[in-house]
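Example 288.
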Amino acid sequence: MKSAKNNGKNEAKIVQLEELSWKQINSLDRKKTIFFIPFSPLEEHGPHLPVGTDLLTARDAAKEAIRLVNKKKQELTIVLFPPIPLGYSKMASDFPGTISTSIKTLKTIVSDVCSSLARFGFKYFVICTFHMDLGHLKGIYSGMSKAMKTHGIKIIEPWGPYFYNKEVEKREPQVGFDTKKEVHACFRETSLMNYQYPYLVDPSYKNLQSIYRDLYSPRVLGKTFKDIGINEGYVGSPARADSDYGRWYFQQIVETYAQATLDLLDGKKLPELPKKTQLLMRSMFWIK
Ligand SMILES: [Zn+2]
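Predicted structure in complex with zinc ion:
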């Protein structure tokens, strides 16, 4: 909306859905309005990071991506939906602070949220999630396809394709060790939080031993961290965290959300989850 004011930091104010009246919402140009929906669960992230690590990252990156897209396309109104602190996180569910909802529930939430706006002619939705559990993505993607089929709208989820196509490993700066084993509350996520919220990172992370497990092996699907001997709730080497890497990583998320949005509006073909990942996701019928 053109009436957006500065928030004092000389940054354009983000339009937040909860601050608008129905009249203001109704006056938005359907062809030029996009909703960004931050969506990640509260989930334990080791003894050193807050349970909101994924949610805060998704929300903050969504805000920066909105600013970036608006810089390039001022005619667009990008509306930030209140961050939804829900997701599927069976694996981390044996630690307090992890809030895991069923896959079916996620499907319903995604589909109902988008449908409630699609009823009034809104067409474009960007789900901003940072949580990459396949069960979580399964819920999101089923909800997306239900709402898209029903209403003929466009909903995208940009980070899954980036993540599962291993773009992080292809693009990241050299750090001098093998980052493939960095999985959860690890070097990458600790770096991210060191960059975004240093005051929320417990300094004890510097003394955490490296712990490695292949969480994507089919043997591990459906198990919890404690089932597989992960008792502190992290997999990787948090002690190596580096806020410069965190800045780079955060920027990747921002650019991935923003680029996917621009491509969506330009009618370009967007990156998809690899076939292998889609198959694995669909085969998870026993996980609820
Ligand atoms: Zn995380």
